[in-house]
Amino acid sequence: MADITREKILVLDFGSQYAQLIARRVREQNVYCEIVRHNITADRVREIAPMGLILSGGPSSVYDEHAPQCDPALFRLGIPVLGICYGLQQMTRHLGGEVLPVATREYGHAEITLAKKHPLWENVSETTRVWMSHGDQVKGLPEGFETLAGTKTCTNAAIGHRTLPLLGVQFHPEVTHSDEGTQMLRNFLKGICGCHGTWRLDDFARLTIENIREKVGDRRVICGLSGGVDSSVVAALLSRAIGDQLSCILVDNGLLRKNEAELVVDLFTHFFKSDLHVVSGQKRFLDALVGIDDPQEKRRRIGKTFIDCFAVEATKIENAHFLAQGTLYPDVIESGGSPDGPAATIKLHHNVGGLPKDLQFELIEPLRDLFKDEVRKLGLRLGLPEEMVWRHPFPGPGLAVRCLGEVNAEKLAVLREADAIVLEELRRADLYRKTSQTFAVLLPVRSVGVMGDARTYDNAIAIRSVDTSDFMTADWSRIPYDVLARMSTRIINEIKGINRVVYDISSKPPATIEWE
Ligand code: XMP
């Protein structure tokens, strides 16, 4: 990957929810970027030889007893540094300036006025709207620094060293609320760090395909297909790389959406020319779920049954040496799986992570350098259809998660139909791409209704739809009433056993996206 990652930027993570966003914004400028621990040593940085460093924001105050600190020697490497919010305060503090708390925490839009001409302000307006979120501010500049921009309440909204490539901004250029933030980041990367933009997905695809060919040789690779974006893109890459040495396994657990298994098979047989094994596991999964209403226990049983089905099928595939997985860069960061990355916070949970010991494969994870939006772009470049690449996420344990209480075939049939209606109406209203995830949930509560002249006593369906960029936080989608009305009327009229439809208006947090 050497040529396209030659120009590298490191983002030092001080615990900010925005560190990944910064990295994605850098990649959007075609510059390769990795997130590393905030306390990476200057020696290690010198070895990696990045073109620039970005110090992220973070929830701490630089004066907190356990505030994360960077290695002060970073500022003497001669590598350009951009400190953002907490990152700016770190730089100020380590270089002898003064950071003080403000009377009230500033949160929201602010207007900065540029104080002087600077490469960071190339093609940026004299006054421009930015997004602030901070409790501390730079009061005294470190020696050699000058003010580059200010607001009414924050004199040093941007500062820079007069002769060294050290810069800091109090606001967040990486969020879209900062109108010209992208231009500022571009200026830092191209004008100050000297990056040309060598990170191209086409080159990534070409090099990855070459690497896979070399690694696999004449052996065989197994890939689990779920119908989701990640596994489809992995399969597409492998199919390009090794063609008929790829065997894909689709476990139909009976918990998929309406027509989903058929769609995946259809797409697969048209698009890929590789070997496909479909395991019909519907009965096994239903049997495993009899009498179980605890959500965690449901997940455990579904996971175990999946592994069993997958493992049995895998043993039928001769000369299989590798297992391909759709691990993405955020999974690598969060699992602590990258050597310089931030410490582990969340455990990885792969669908096939628990394969039995006597069935161990060497892993191939061709997407482990990519963010989700890059995976989607790559999928399109590899020729996958739009509707596949832009599918809403779907949990591994499928509809069982959305069928509250005990799961059985009848309940699943009701939920599957309701879900299909919700998605059909959503698409008809041209809202599928505008919402991040939309689905139906079957509630095992019965209430009285009236249909024709008769009294009914039936279950309810909840419609859930959210807007989010990271699925860690989410807001409920403002779906127009007439679209909700069509969904509701059709569900009640067309599905026996449902007499009430409700719309979930909770955001995450405190709610989650799924019900369970
Ligand atoms: P929650 O409900 O925690 O969900 O807000 C966040 C996102 O994760 C998806 N999700 C899963 N995805 N396997 C998956 O691949 C799972 O077991 C799983 N559980 C939840 C969920 O659909 C949402 O997009």
Describe this structure in words.
It contains 15 helices and 18 strands. It is α/β, with parallel strands linked by helices. The protein has a 9-stranded mixed sheet with strand order 2-1-3-4-9-8-7-5-6, with helices on both faces. A 5-stranded parallel sheet has the order 12-11-10-13-14, with helices on both faces. Strands 15, 16, 17 and 18 form a 4-stranded mixed sheet that branches. Helix 10 (329-334) links the parallel strand 13 and strand 14. Residues 345-350 have low confidence and may be disordered. The chain binds xanthosine-5'-monophosphate (XMP). The site of xanthosine-5'-monophosphate (XMP) has 10 residues, from loops.
Question: In short, what is this structure?
Answer:
The protein is of the alpha/beta class. The protein has 15 helices and 18 strands. The two termini are 42 Å apart.
Bulk shape: globular
How is the main sheet built? 9 strands, mixed
Small molecules (ligands, ions, cofactors) in the structure: xanthosine-5'-monophosphate
Q: Give start-end ranges of low-pLDDT stretches.
A: 345-350
Strand order of the largest sheet: 2-1-3-4-9-8-7-5-6
- Summing up helix and strand content along with how strands pair, one would put the structural category as alpha/beta
For the residues shown, what is the average pLDDT?
A: 92
Report Rg.
26 Å
Into which percent range does the helicity of residues fall?
A: 25-40%
Counted by DSSP, the helix tally is 15
The total strand number stands at: 18
N/C terminus separation: 42 Å
% residues in beta strands: 25-35%
